[in-house]
Prior knowledge:
Layout: E1 3-7, H1 8-17, E2 19-23, E3 26-29, E4 31-36, H2 43-52, E5 58-60, H3 64-77, E6 83-88, H4 92-106, E7 111-117, E8 151-154, H5 160-172, E9 180-186, H6 187-191, E10 193-197, E11 204-207, H7 215-227, E12 231-235, H8 237-241, H9 245-255, E13 259-261, E14 276-279, H10 286-294, E15 297-301, H11 307-310, E16 322-327, H12 330-333, E17 339-342, H13 345-355, H14 363-384, H15 394-404, E18 410-413, H16 418-425, E19 434-436, H17 445-456, E20 462-467, H18 468-473, H19 477-484, E21 489-494, H20 499-507, H21 536-542, E22 546-549, H22 553-565, E23 570-575, H23 599-612
Parallel strand pairs: 2-11, 4-5, 4-6, 6-7, 7-9, 8-9, 12-13, 12-15, 13-14, 15-16, 16-17, 18-19, 18-20, 20-21, 21-23, 22-23
Antiparallel strand pairs: 1-10, 2-3
Amino acid sequence: xxxxxxxxxxxxxxxxxxxxxxxxxxxxxxxxxxxxxxxxxxxxxxxxxxxxxxxxxxxxxxxxxxxxxxxxxxxxxxxxxxxxxxxxxxxxxxxxxxxxxxxxxxxxxxxxxxxxxxxxxxxxxxxxxxxxxxxxxxxxxxxxxxxxxxxxxxxxxxxxxxxxxxxxxxxxxxxxxxxxxxxxxxxxxxxxxxxxxxxxxxxxxxxxxxxxxxxxxxxxxxxxxxxxxxxxxxxxxxxxxxxxxxxxxxxxxxxxxxxxxxxxxxxxxxxxxxxxxxxxxxxxxxxxxxxxxxxxxxxxxxxxxxxxxxxxxxxxxxxxxxxxxxxxxxxxxxxxxxxxxxxxxxxxxxxxxxxxxxxxxxxxxxxxxxxxxxxxxxxxxxxxxxxxxxxxxxxxxxxxxxxxxxxxxxxxxxxxxxxxxxxxxxxxxxxxxxxxxxxxxxxxxxxxxxxxxxxxxxxxxxxxxxxxxxxxxxxxxxxxxxxxxxxxxxxxxxxxxxxxxxxxxxxxxxxxxxxxxxxxxxxxxxxxxxxxxxxxxxxxxxxxxxxxxxxxxxxxxxxxxxxxxxxxxxxxxxxxxxxxxxxxxxxxxxxxxxxxxxxxxxxxxxxxxxxxxxxxxxx
Length: 619
């Protein structure tokens, strides 16, 4: 057996460079490079290897959590067919990545996380940044990654890398098991040399299969669908990751079954398709919620049925409702006691189409669906209408950006009140035009993720829409964008507070306590003084971005035009009204204090108990 004597760090980088994926005959490198910040626990091993391998791109970021967000956004835009490796030292650099790992795993997106670790030979312990345990010497802060990783390993001997790396790739490229993969590398082991087999470094192409549905279950599913009178499809992210949007459109037009979309599934059908009911669930449209409430059959495709999709288990009120789930993950296909079709969405829809030949929902049902689509689009235009009052509403800003963006451009967001409004209002024409991280709703995701989205799709214009609270959490990656020449657009909506949680606080009777950006009043001791004077535009300029201050919708439109023509990342700031929101059309369960001296809380608790009566178990 031929061998190649390399350090563990060198062997790791050599291996990553030679991993490829193929689906439907299209082959691509799986890793676009490496993101991270060097520290004493990674620089001598993996750091030296990256310096030797200039053809494996290394990008220096400003926060390790942001590294993972960049990789996650890249993987999302690439339909999970590519990602980055993310490195850090042991200590805070490693634990900074835990939030990013949770975000990737919850959203079922592949990211490779490589934190440095304590010395395997232990003689110098405790080293700088080492977490000591009186109960064991075989633990470090990297054990925190275990619950948020789909695969976790620690390399304590060089030869362990030979058996670990194939397992790392098995999970990363798996459509059903993917998520964050953590490979902890003790800092001494990274630098140790070993005679690795050359076979480990050959080009390897991981072929991504399209598992077919079980024939018997598929026939049963077709029979259930044919017997239904009011079926509704809930399209989740799996439709888009499987590139099944064309197959979905064919089935929908063949059968007339309407579609409601989750956050990850928005774009499964164009917004103006007459069978598109719009957003599902808590942040859903009135039509989608009405149709799902009365449906006798829910066909869930690539959805994990989060509480936002099910309106905390109140969305499906028909006592006879049944579920058929098409999902690559067995865990999700069985949810709601469904008939489980554990398979690839595209493959299943193509086969299901044949079995549904001759079936079509009643024309009256189709007409009602089309009417609902048209009615909601007219309502969206009303929300987008410029009133001229200041501060502008969030819906007006969304309208201006939506009307300016091209059909292939991308809106990107993650947390706050913006995701809900975007879910309802954004007019999505392309499957990749709507990039929402709402599995973990990670504040701070946006400014970092915009870099990953742009690198994955350099020909698309990326519009990051972010509230002031989210912007303040992780605007530092603007520096990384300038460094790498990655140009995207950031629209900061400043409502001087945490708008989303403030509204939620108000809904449960807590009167927006502790959610506004105010000075602390010396007399009351509360945060109810004057508004804090944060200059977002000046902050963006200080980080190297081009900044534009808009104060109304006409100036925002002018700023959007200027931003598109710019060659550097541009930040547009605009003040929005904290209280002008888009109404919700479904309930979301957030527990309310059962006992309180506050009258508004008492009233909220009464409403809470009433809404809980609509919740259902699906057994």
